[in-house]
Amino acid sequence: MILENRLFETLKLGDTASATRLCTADDLFIFASATGNHNPLHLPGLDGDGDGQAEAMVPSAFAASLVAALLGSHLPGPGITTLSQDYTFHTRAKADDELVTTVTVTGLDNGVVTLAAQVIREIDDMLILSGSVRVQAPAKSYRVDGSTLPGLTVRRHRHFEAILARAEPLPPLRTAVICPENAASLGGAILAMKHTIITPILIGHLGKIHAAATELGADLSGVEIIEEAHHAAAAARAVALVREGRVDAVMKGNLHTDEMLRPMVVRETGLRIGRRLTHIFVMDVPGLAHPLLVSDAAINIAPDLATKVDIVQNAIDLAISIGIAQPRVGVLSAVETVNPDIPSSLDAALLSKMAERGQITGGFVDGPLAMDNAVSMAAARIKGIKSEVAGRAEVLVVPGIDAGNMLAKQLAYISHAEAAGLVMGARVPVILNSRSDSSMARLASCAVAAIHHARMQEKAE
Question: What mean pLDDT is predicted for residues 233-251?
Answer without folding.
Answer: 96
